Give the backbone structure.
Amino acid sequence: MVKRKVISTEEVLNFKDKIMLKGVKVRLVPPKKEYIDRFQKWMNDLEITQHLTVFRPITKEMQKDWYDSMIKSENNILFSIVVSDDDNNEKLIGNCDIDVDWKNRVGSCGIVIGEKEYHGKGYGTEAMKLLVEYGFTTLNLNRIDLEAHSFNSRALQSYMKVGFKKEVIRRHAVYINGVYHDSIVLSILRDEWQRNK
Ligand SMILES: CC(C)(COP(=O)(O)OP(=O)(O)OC[C@H]1O[C@@H](n2cnc3c(N)ncnc32)[C@H](O)[C@@H]1OP(=O)(O)O)[C@@H](O)C(=O)NCCC(=O)NCCS
């Protein structure tokens, strides 16, 4: 009988901790505990959260619990998005994650560039490209999907540049500030990604 090495959770987390994905503008790095205060600031900013599913005020404890659950999760892989500032120091600008359904080899992504002065400058698109590449080449996924509110033109434009295709319109699926909006599901398949890279 083949003896399989059992890896402890600590070893898995250590392994996760060493992953870093490098682009030209951004790097995806392990999310640090000291970033929690920034995450909390973003999650209480309506300009940001109107595009997400968050609607409650988020306390430091809630943000910390979310961070702990993401770090411990077997399915959800969280990266922080960083750039280098003028002094070449690491500057946090956002987060992205991929939630994996291992049996069906499907990953569902999310992304937030929380530092608003970095919006619309190509950072989000590059971060998503890195995340998708990681999903197909490291996690061995076959499909990656995500969802965006129909009024989030910047996100939709960015995802389509990465290669996602609009797949489903979930009519009136979100209610924001007194108005119903559609929600758009987008997806990219491994062979489409391979053909277009
Ligand atoms: C969505 C998000 C990740 C996109 O990242 P980004 O770095 O801002 O986007 P990029 O600059 O890489 O790409 C945006 C594209 O949309 C275009 N764009 C920018 N503002 C736009 C707007 N108001 N309307 C339509 N298109 C817009 C840009 O021109 C760019 O396309 P181009 O490169 O063809 O010119 C980022 O804006 C964000 O985190 N927003 C807040 C939270 C959020 O919406 N998260 C996603 C939830 S689904």
